[in-house]
């Protein structure tokens, strides 16, 4: 039987506020345990939450970026459950009237097409603390620094049909939140976490199958792996006559599998009710208009513009618009050198290669966009050839000079286009290589094209890479053929 | 709505409140009376009335995103039964 996979994602994005959603405690990562957990975060008696205006603004910015309805009124609810890293006994969340209503995100697929994924809603909530299960004499250690950190939970519709689409959606959300600057999007530090709802159904069937929810999927790669495993598990189960049960499963990246989590029978009885400590949040049109006017150009718009206005391929446009740092770097290189295609090639080729080798992000590139732009400009105006340009890039990378021009000058890499000078070098090489010249002359005419490579190499070497390769090629052929 | 003993025990368990057998039957009666009143309210025609999220006719004030709290861990941990390396220690929980 042919099966279809149905996937929906719940993405938790940690908002990049300085203080917590309901208290003035710091949200900085990596502090001493419990040094950033104040009376409100600890749920001590008599304290009251006060909502952080920046958390509200960031949630609304996200909503505007995904073309969502932003309701005038949103309300906080209490989600009640008992766990030691939740000192109040409830998580303040938004169940019935979330701050962001239905919207949509466009994802880029491998075949250069795009697909719209609907967003059901996004709501504000507070994070819980951390439980450390290492052995503290048979006890569990609790760090409440993270308790009260603002989260935006973004809930998609079940619109994805493959693991690849789910990963592309997660990447699109990551791009949007980092473009907006509302989260650092650091998945390793838990700033973005993802729960995946997966089900399968016979192709052509309208009703959804029973879904499993997979927790703890914390990288783009894990999303694909966890879904691939889960889909196979469900199909095998059904084909063997079994039934998928609705349950929560945990992804184990080390064993590359999902496992059923032991669930208590009352686990889902959260007894939601409106939080009496918080009043309804009311947003007026002027506030929304103001935030809308501050929105930066977003990844999908950039991708579109890179293709339409700059003539880049769908692939190049997609790679270069994926992160705001990458897009801004590319645009700066383009501004300086004036050639989008060359700028794209250098950013994705030489620069990305060097960054990957040293595991650096583009924001920490030793070569600035301005420096790279000037270098590309020198290639475009024929001051240096492609080979010399790579040398200049390496020199810039290692800080051997502050500009392409200075390095070209210091290393004498200026391209030699003077025919007389090139001819002199060619004559010398021919005089120094009698054996190769004889071979060339004796060879079948169709093989000579290949053999000329040796002479080109010698001349380029003699010029220390500065001769114009096209000129060398043409002149060599003339001179060698004259010896036949 | 008539409550049963099991409802009270379940609610008590979810709230982590210890309720003895004697107390449970008393709560069944008390809580049932509250639910009877809710039933009475359910009978009121609320067509066209927006659900009330809060009894006060006011909207949420927001605060500026500023760190105003200092580290008072030592003070807070004075009332904790067990701490170690800055962590609160609780009976072991494993999911």
What attributes characterize this protein structure?
heterodimer; A: 484 residues; alpha+beta; Arc Repressor Mutant, subunit A; eight-stranded mixed β-sheet; three-stranded antiparallel β-sheet; 16 strands; 41% helix; elongated; B: 95 residues; mainly alpha; Histone, subunit A; two-stranded antiparallel ribbon; 3 strands; 39% helix; 9% strand
Count of spatially separate domains of chain A: 3
Distance between the termini of chain A: 70 Å
Structural class call of chain B reads mainly alpha
Main β sheet profile of chain A: 8 strands, mixed
Cα distance, first to last residue of chain B? 35 Å
Helix- and strand-based class of chain A? alpha+beta
Helix content of chain B: 25-40%
Number of strands of chain A: 16
| Radius of gyration of chain B (Å) | 22 Å
Widest sheet: strand ordering of chain A: 6-7-10-1-11-12-13-14
Unreliable spans of chain A are none
Strand order of the largest sheet of chain B: 2-3
If helices are DSSP runs of H or I spanning 4 or more residues, what is the number of helices of chain B?
3
Q: What is the succession of H and E elements of chain B?
A: HHEHEE
Give the helix tally of chain A: 15
Organism (chain A): Vreelandella subterranea
GO molecular function (chain A): asparaginyl-tRNA synthase (glutamine-hydrolyzing) activity; ATP binding; glutaminyl-tRNA synthase (glutamine-hydrolyzing) activity; transferase activity
EC number (chain A): 6.3.5.-
Enzyme class (chain A): ligase
Overall description:
The complex is a heterodimer of chains A (484) and B (95). Chain A is an alpha+beta fold and 484 residues long. Chain A has 3 domains: 3-289, no CATH class; 297-411, no CATH class; 419-482, Arc Repressor Mutant, subunit A (Orthogonal Bundle). Helices cover 41% and strands 19% of the residues of chain A. Chain A contains 15 helices and 16 strands. In chain A, the strands form 4 sheets. Chain A has an 8-stranded mixed beta sheet with strand order 6-7-10-1-11-12-13-14. Chain A has a 3-stranded antiparallel beta sheet with strand order 5-4-15, with no helix packed on it. In chain A, strands 3-16 form a two-stranded antiparallel ribbon. In chain A, helix 5 (299-308) runs antiparallel to helix 6 (314-321), helix 9 packs antiparallel against helix 10 (386-397) and helix 12 (419-432) crosses helix 14 (445-462). Chain A is elongated. The N and C termini of chain A lie far apart (70 Å). With 95 residues, chain B is mostly helical. Chain B has a domain at 1-42: Histone, subunit A (Orthogonal Bundle), CATH 1.10.20. Chain B has helices at residues 5-14, 21-42, 73-77; strands at residues 62-63, 83-84, 87-91. Chain B has a two-stranded antiparallel ribbon with strand order 2-3. The longest helix of chain B is centred in the N-terminal third of the chain and has 22 residues, at 21-42. The model of chain B has no long low-confidence stretch (mean pLDDT 90).
């Amino acid at each position: 039987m042919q099966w279809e996979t149905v996937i929906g994602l719940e993405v938790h994005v940690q908002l990049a506020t300085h203080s917590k959603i309901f208290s003035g405690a710091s949200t900085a990562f990596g502090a001493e345990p419990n040094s950033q957990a104040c009376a409100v975060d600890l749920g001590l008696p008599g304290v009251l939450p006060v909502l952080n205006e920046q958390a509200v603004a960031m949630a609304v910015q996200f909503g505007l970026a995904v073309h969502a309805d932003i309701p005038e009124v949103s309300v906080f609810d209490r989600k009640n459950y008992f766990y030691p890293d939740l000192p109040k006994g409830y998580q303040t969340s938004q169940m019935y009237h979330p701050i962001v209503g239905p919207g949509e995100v466009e994802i880029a697929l491998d075949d250069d097409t795009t697909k719209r994924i609907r967003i059901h809603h996004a709501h504000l909530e507070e994070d819980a603390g951390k439980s450390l299960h290492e052995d503290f004499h048979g006890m569990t250690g609790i760090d409440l620094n993270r308790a009260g950190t603002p989260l935006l939970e973004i809930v998609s519709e079940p619109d994805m049909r493959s693991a690849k689409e789910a990963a592309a959606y997660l990447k699109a959300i990551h791009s949007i939140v980092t473009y907006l600057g509302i989260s650092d999007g650091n998945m390793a530090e838990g700033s973005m976490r993802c729960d995946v709802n997966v089900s399968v159904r016979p192709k052509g069937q309208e009703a959804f199958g029973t879904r499993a929810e997979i927790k703890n999927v914390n990288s783009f790669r894990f999303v694909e792996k966890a879904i691939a495993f889960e889909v196979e598990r469900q199909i095998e189960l059904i084909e063997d006559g079994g039934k998928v049960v609705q349950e929560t499963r945990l992804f184990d990246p080390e064993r590359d599998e999902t496992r059923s989590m032991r669930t208590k029978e009352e686990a889902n009885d959260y007894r939601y009710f409106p939080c009496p400590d918080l009043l309804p949040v009311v947003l007026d049109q002027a506030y929304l208009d103001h935030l809308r006017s501050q929105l930066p150009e977003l990844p999908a718009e950039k991708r579109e513009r890179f293709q339409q206005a700059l003539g880049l391929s769908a692939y190049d446009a997609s790679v270069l618009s994926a992160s705001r740092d990458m897009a801004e770097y590319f645009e700066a290189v383009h501004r300086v050198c004036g050639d989008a295609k060359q700028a794209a090639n250098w950013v994705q080729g030489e620069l990305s290669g060097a960054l990957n080798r040293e595991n650096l992000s583009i924001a920490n590139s030793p070569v600035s966009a301005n420096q790279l732009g000037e270098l590309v400009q020198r290639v475009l105006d024929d001051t240096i050839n492609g080979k010399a340009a790579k040398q200049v890039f390496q020199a810039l990378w290692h800080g051997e000079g502050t500009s392409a021009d200075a390095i070209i000058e210091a290393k004498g890499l200026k391209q030699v286009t003077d025919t007389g000078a090139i001819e002199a070098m060619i004559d010398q090489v021919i005089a120094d290589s009698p054996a190769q010249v004889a071979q060339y002359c004796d060879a079948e005419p169709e093989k000579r094209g290949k053999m000329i490579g040796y002479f080109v190499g010698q001349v380029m070497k003699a010029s220390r890479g500065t001769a114009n390769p096209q000129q060398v090629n043409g002149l060599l052929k003339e001179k060698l053929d004259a010896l036949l | 709505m008539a409550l049963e003993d099991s409802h009270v025990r379940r609610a008590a368990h979810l709230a982590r409140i210890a309720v003895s057998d004697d107390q449970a039957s008393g709560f069944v009666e008390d809580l049932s009376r509250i639910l009877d009143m809710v039933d009475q309210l359910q009978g009121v025609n609320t067509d066209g009335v927006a659900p009330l999220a809060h009894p006060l006719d006011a909207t949420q004030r927001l605060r500026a995103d500023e760190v105003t709290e200092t580290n008072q861990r030592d003070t807070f941990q004075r009332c904790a039964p067990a701490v170690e390396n800055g962590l609160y220690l609780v009976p072991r929980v494993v999911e």
